[in-house]
Specification:
Largest interface: A-B, 87 and 85 residues
Largest sheet of chain B: none
Distance between the termini of chain A: 25 Å
Largest sheet of chain A: none
Radius of gyration of chain A: 22 Å
CATH class of chain B: Mainly Alpha
Shape of chain A: globular
CATH class of the largest domain in chain A: Mainly Alpha
CATH topology of chain B: MetI-like fold
Oligomer: heterodimer
Helix content of chain B: over 70%
Structural class of chain B: mainly alpha
Order of helices and strands of chain A: HHHHHHHHHHHH
Number of strands of chain B: 0
Strand content of chain B: under 5%
Number of domains of chain A: 2
CATH architecture of the largest domain in chain A: Orthogonal Bundle
Distance between the termini of chain B: 28 Å
Number of helices of chain A: 12
CATH superfamily of the largest domain in chain A: MetI-like
Structural class of chain A: mainly alpha
Chain lengths: 257, 281
């Protein structure tokens, strides 16, 4: 069938660049032609030997962990208020809370750079962390809202009528039910922060460079497959994230299918 | 839930957004009408920077190039994304979760990594050119990168998942009975598609196109890496003015032009998706 042929080609188009990166990372040649020249781990060795990449990797991981923790907390609280509360202006509040998702990040980046410069906080860890929390929290709000919408309030009421206080009912019942959404949100926030480029570009300095920025700087001047090793590592992280989401929420629910 | 509890729950994130999203954007707007050049609060206001942007042929050319590139990318993403979304919405295959992963995975791989994948493929000594030349099928490399073509290909790749997701949402809710009815009444598959499926999926087409267009015109990494500074787009001007030239007011004015375009697109997008949801559910 024609449809099937076209669909297969489009899937190939989607996956090809990532496949190529992974093969190039394990390919021994400097320039990648087909067929591959031979298996080698030299580009990974080069990656692990370079201090700037190692520092960037550590910074990105630490930053993503802090971002995930803070945005999961703030996002979960906001999602509970948005789904459970029936109040005027809820739609507007919903739009406001997810607005950082819709605005191009280059604009958020410029605005934050100018703002932090006036506060004399530019190029600090705090500026970077706050920026990342602003852009990742809306994802948490979405994933938690998705699981909360299906939650049966009667469960919490049952717990309360059996003598549990509202706080205990929430901690033991509600939190248990929405846990998949919270975990998925945290995973997603970690991934978005770990991969973020555009926002970080405006908030970094030469002493404070996350991995995507370091990779970008490297790519501007050299083309050797060390960059492929870095990229293959990032693709590995992305695969773990997808597995995590599939495990805790189910991909279909997560994307709204 | 009491109003107080709700307020307490919403407070952390709304306070953060107010302080570190709304105020900075308002500040940017203020800087764009300021006479002072760098890092000072304005004392007198001017529209000079906007006048400069809209009276200079160079900047208007960049704006035009940005919008044209966005239109081409959107059209290509629609053409590639529609069959994929159609298939994904209707398939009963057991591989469906896997197909979904294939659509989503590019979203979770960083944009720099995806650009690098295209650089490996499209460079003069990249996979395509290198292989063709090595085999003697080609004398000189094809110009696949550091031009509009390379930028457009990578942009389509980066934003295609958004198009597919927008389309699948609408296509999945199409009632199969309507299609069967049309077929029973003697319509050919082509006619059923053109007269039923396509018009009913129009909200998804519009929503996906608006989303892809607004993402494409504000992309910075792709034009830099795949265009090699030979393709100038508005986000690059913003970046240069703010971080290299340090002309903050002009940079802010450029950013604000981009902001107005995206807010207009987002407003239409929200209206379209809301109407689509109301019409079908």
């Amino acid at each position: 069938m024609i449809l099937r042929g076209v669909v297969t080609l489009v899937y190939a188009f989607l996956l090809l660049p990532m496949l190529v990166v992974v093969i190039a990372a394990f390919n021994s040649g400097t320039f990648f032609t087909f067929p591959p020249q031979g298996f080698s781990l030299r580009w990974f060795a080069n990656f692990f030997a370079r201090r700037e990449f190692m520092q960037a990797l550590r910074l990105s991981t630490e930053l993503a962990l802090w971002t995930a923790a803070l945005s999961t907390l703030a996002g979960t609280l906001a999602a509970i208020a948005l789904v459970r509360g029936r109040f005027r202006g809820r739609a507007a509040m919903n739009a406001f809370v997810t607005s950082p998702l819709l605005l191009p990040q280059i604009l958020t980046g410029v605005a934050l750079l100018q703002f932090f410069t006036l506060l004399k906080l530019q190029q600090t860890y705090w500026a970077l962390l706050i920026g990342h929390v602003v852009v990742t929290t809306p994802y948490v709000v979405r994933t938690v809202s998705a699981t909360l919408t299906h939650f049966d309030l009667a469960l919490e009421e049952a717990a309360q009528s059996l003598g549990a206080g509202p706080v205990r009912a929430f901690l033991e019942i509600t939190l248990g039910v929405i846990k998949p959404g919270v975990v998925a949100g945290a995973i997603f926030a970690f991934a978005i922060s770990f991969d973020n480029f555009t926002l970080s570009l405006f908030l970094t300095s030469s002493r404070l460079t996350p991995l995507p920025i370091e990779l970008f700087a490297y790519l501007k001047y050299s083309f050797d497959p060390t960059a492929a090793a870095v990229s293959a590592l990032a693709i590995g992280v992305a695969l773990l994230v997808i597995l995590g989401i599939a495990r805790f929420v189910g991909l279909a629910e997560f994307t709204g299918f | 839930m009491t109003a107080r509890a709700r307020l307490l729950l919403l407070l952390p994130f709304t306070a953060l957004l107010g302080g570190f999203f709304v105020v900075p954007l308002a500040l940017m707007a203020l800087i764009s009408v300021s006479r002072e050049s760098f890092g000072e609060l304005p004392t007198s206001l001017t529209l000079h920077h906007y006048a400069r942007f809209f009276s200079d042929a160079y900047y208007l050319g960049v704006l035009w190039e940005t919008l044209a590139l966005g239109a081409v990318v959107t059209a290509a993403a629609l053409v590639l994304g529609y069959p994929l979304a159609y298939h994904l919405a209707r398939t009963r295959s057991r591989a469906k979760p896997l197909l979904l992963v294939a659509v989503l995975s590019p979203l979770l791989v960083g944009i720099v990594v995806r650009c690098y994948g295209w650089m490996i493929l499209l460079a003069d000594r990249g996979l395509i050119n290198g292989t063709l030349i090595e085999r003697g099928w080609l004398a000189a490399p094809l110009p696949l990168m550091y031009n509009r073509f390379g930028v457009a290909v990578a942009l389509v790749h980066v934003f295609l998942p958004f198009m597919v997701l927008s389309l699948t949402g609408v296509l999945k809710r199409l009632d199969p009975h309507v299609l069967e009815a049309a077929m029973t009444l003697g319509a050919s598959p082509a006619r059923t598609f053109l007269e039923i499926t396509l018009p009913l999926s129009l909200p998804g087409i519009l929503a996906g196109s608006l989303l892809v267009f607004s993402l494409a015109i504000s992309s910075f990494v792709v034009p830099v890496l795949l265009g090699g500074f030979k393709v100038q787009v508005l986000p690059m001007i913003v970046y240069e003015q703010v971080l290299s030239v340090f002309d903050w007011p002009f940079g802010a004015a450029n950013a604000f032009v981009l902001l107005v375009i995206s807010i207009a697109l987002i407003a239409v997008y929200i209206r379209v998706t809301e109407r689509a949801l109301r019409g079908i559910v």
